[in-house]
């Protein structure tokens, strides 16, 4: 069964204190791994797609990496405005039709204190 | 335009009401999705439309009825809902094919009294 586990559930950082969020996945053939940021009461905001092990992508203070079993979202020198819930999702090959489901993790709630 | 819009932002309805949620995208995407999200939970897929045809229905109760009038619009018709249906309803769109990141709208906060 396809599965996504994110850790930690919650993370509190001081401004400028770098850290990483983890997304472990089990999927029958990875089509893509996606990172989203979600603010309270709003829709998820797309951040990155990773397709193959070894791939890395960066955007401002965020860097996403992918191995065959997990992905990391590294946050360098975070600011209070980076506070949000970060969701990881995977899409596998074994779905009928032309579109596949996204299997979401439960998210990591990040709080950055000034 | 890289935006998915949803209306209304908030909706309060009684259990006997009929209402509709609307979603629009102008990114040329041919796949559109409805998700339901409860507090502190990840989004749960409800329906997928591909080329304006329903391709996935995740065993959603018939009180939720999706409609895709054209490639840019997606509706969700609501009837005889229960209080436990209160949630954030999210619309998303993507390209059809192997590489298809989904872009989400801001959501409609639905409260069923």
Task: Summarize the structure in words.
The complex is a heterodimer of chains A (about 110) and B (about 110). Chain A has about 110 residues and is mainly β. Chain A is about 0% helix and about 55% strand. Chain A has no helices and eleven strands. In chain A, strands 2, 4, 5, 9, 10 and 11 form a six-stranded mixed sheet that branches. Chain B is an all-beta fold and about 110 residues long. Chain B contains no helices and eleven strands. In chain B, strands 2, 4, 5, 6, 9, 10 and 11 form a seven-stranded mixed sheet that branches. Chain B is globular. Chain B starts with a strand and ends with a strand. The model of chain B has no long low-confidence stretch (mean pLDDT about 95). At the A-B interface, strand 4, strand 5 and strand 9 of A face strand 5, strand 9 and strand 10 of B.
Unreliable sequence segments of chain B = none
Order of SSEs of chain A: EEEEEEEEEEE
Helix content of chain B: under 10%
Order of helices and strands of chain B: EEEEEEEEEEE
How many β-strand stretches of chain B?
11
Helix/strand-derived category of chain B reads: mainly beta
Mean pLDDT of chain B: 93
As a whole number of angstroms, the C-alpha radius of gyration of chain A is 14 Å
Tell me the Rg of chain B in angstroms. Answer: 13 Å
Q: Output the number of helix runs of chain A.
A: 0
Q: Largest interface, with Cβ-Cβ < 8 Å?
A: A-B, 24 and 29 residues
Give the percentage of residues in beta strands of chain A. Answer: over 45%
- Oligomeric category: heterodimer
Distance between the termini of chain B: 36 Å
Structural class of chain A: mainly beta
Shape of chain A: globular
Contiguous uncertain segments of 5+ residues of chain A = none
Largest sheet of chain A: 6 strands, mixed
């Amino acid at each position: 069964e396809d599965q996504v586990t994110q850790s930690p559930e919650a993370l509190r950082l001081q401004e400028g204190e770098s850290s990483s969020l983890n997304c472990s996945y089990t999927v029958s053939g990875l089509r893509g791994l996606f990172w989203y940021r979600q603010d309270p009461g709003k829709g998820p905001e797309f951040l990155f797609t990773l397709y193959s092990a070894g791939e890395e992508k960066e955007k401002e203070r965020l860097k996403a990496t992918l191995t065959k079993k997990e992905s990391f979202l590294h946050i360098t020198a975070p600011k209070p405005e980076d506070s949000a819930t970060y969701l990881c999702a995977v899409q596998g090959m074994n779905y009928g039709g032309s579109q596949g489901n996204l299997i979401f993790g439960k998210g990591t709630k990040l709080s950055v204190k000034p | 335009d890289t935006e998915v819009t949803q209306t209304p932002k908030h909706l309060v309805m009684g259990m006997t009401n009929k209402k509709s949620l609307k979603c629009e995208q102008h990114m040329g995407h041919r796949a559109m999705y409805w998700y339901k999200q409860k507090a502190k939970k990840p989004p749960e897929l409800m329906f997928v439309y591909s080329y304006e045809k329903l391709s996935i229905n995740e065993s959603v109760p018939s009180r939720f009825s999706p409609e895709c009038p054209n490639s840019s619009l997606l509706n969700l018709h609501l009837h005889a809902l229960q209080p436990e249906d209160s949630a954030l309803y999210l619309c998303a769109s993507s390209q059809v094919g192997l590489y298809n990141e989904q872009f989400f709208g801001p959501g409609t906060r639905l409260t069923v009294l």
